[in-house]
């Protein structure tokens, strides 16, 4: 389950946006292999327990895939074949350990969820929770969300994109590492179908201002007023993780930002 919340050391969306392979892998990953993408995640090692490894070995071949193998990105996804049905598709960027991912998928069984994460430990925890709870409408992708958006998804393919508590990279010199830059928001807008939803949440005031500015300046997105949220095609109701609770107690306000594709 997702267990990261908004605390910086536990971020979920820190783990994806601009590396094309998990951090322990070597090599480049940009479209031009002579230039490395600026990464939005922090390199760290992760380990999993023996039971998690057993679940991984048993279920990953069916429910998971790599966004890139070596220098080769994955092919365009056949989502209907992978899920075994056709349903509204939601992409969650940086699922962490999946607390919110699992709960929201359970609350919306008629949607399909692609959960993207770099770190195996988080994906292993989510996979184990899916197994325990018999949740069948989530598929896992390990790697770079930009690779997923660029290479694996077609335009107008998504009903929703969720980005909860991306790493704020608070130092000015690191702002270029933030996930929700104009180019990535434009890519998200392109992959959303008309009426599709971009839902972002952050507990960092400065990053909230940047996200709001970038989203509002994307011509294909329109901010959703509070009175219309209930009419959206996906839920925007998030469970509050223990880390988010800790941040709130520390005085950090959480900003929710919601746009729809026009």
Please name the CATH topology. Rossmann fold
Structural class: alpha/beta
Strand order of the largest sheet: 1-6-5-4-7-8-10-9
Choose one word for the global shape. globular
Under CATH, the homologous superfamily reads Vaccinia Virus protein VP39
Q: Span between N and C termini?
A: 32 Å
Question: What does this 3D model show about the protein?
Answer:
- The chain has helices at 50-63, 79-83, 99-107, 120-133, 145-152, 182-191, 205-217, 242-249; strands at 64-66, 68-69, 72-73, 89-93, 112-117, 138-142, 158-164, 192-202, 221-223, 255-261.
- By secondary structure, it is α/β, with parallel strands linked by helices.
- It has a single domain (8-261), classed as Rossmann fold (3-Layer(aba) Sandwich), CATH 3.40.50.
- The longest helix is centred in the N-terminal third of the chain and has 14 residues, at 50-63.
- It starts with 49 loop residues before the first helix and ends with a strand.
List keywords for this structure.
262 residues, alpha/beta, Rossmann fold, 8-stranded mixed sheet, two-stranded antiparallel ribbon, 8 helices, disordered N terminus
Could you provide a short overview of the structure?
With 262 residues, this protein is an alpha/beta fold. The chain is 31% helix and 19% strand. It has helices at 50-63, 79-83, 99-107, 120-133, 145-152, 182-191, 205-217, 242-249, and strands at residues 64-66, 68-69, 72-73, 89-93, 112-117, 138-142, 158-164, 192-202, 221-223, 255-261.
